[in-house]
Write a structure and sequence with these properties.
Blueprint: H1 2-24, E1 33-37, E2 40-44, E3 48-56, E4 64-68, E5 74-79, E6 82-87, E7 91-101, E8 105-116
Parallel strand pairs: 2-8
Antiparallel strand pairs: 1-3, 3-6, 4-7, 5-6, 7-8
Keywords: Signal
Protein name: BIG2 domain-containing protein
Signal peptide: 1-23
């Protein structure tokens, strides 16, 4: 009798595990990875600098946007290959790259922007 109970427990465990795996459906894609080059942008007030931005890996087809942490210090405009950073006033801020992905929600990455006089 004990042997039969053990086999029943093993079969039940296998069935539950298989059902759980089937219920998972589409696996999550890896966390989005951005390449931002350069990671530290130095720009003079009134000048512009290009920044290359690439969303890599399985998420590379996701749409993304850019924004400035402080538009009074630097403005950021999205381009086909990344962004253009313009120095507005002396100081430091961040360039943010933002994407929304299934399973992770809103994901941000950033680079430092230093504006010199």
């Amino acid at each position: 009798m004990q042997r039969r109970t053990r086999w029943t427990a093993l079969l039940l465990t296998a069935a539950v595990t298989a059902g759980g795996a089937a219920a998972c459906g589409d696996p999550l894609r890896p966390y989005p990875q951005f390449t931002i080059n350069p990671r530290a942008v130095n720009v003079a007030r009134g000048a512009t600098v290009p920044v290359k931005i690439v969303l890599a890996g399985p998420n590379k087809s996701e749409s993304w946007t850019v924004e400035s942490g402080n538009p009074a210090v630097a403005t950021v405009v999205q381009t086909e290959t990344g962004a253009t950073v313009s120095g507005a006033s002396t100081g430091s801020t961040r360039l943010y790259v933002v994407t929304r992905t299934e399973g992770f929600g809103t994901v941000r990455d950033s680079a430092t922007i230093n504006v010199a006089p």
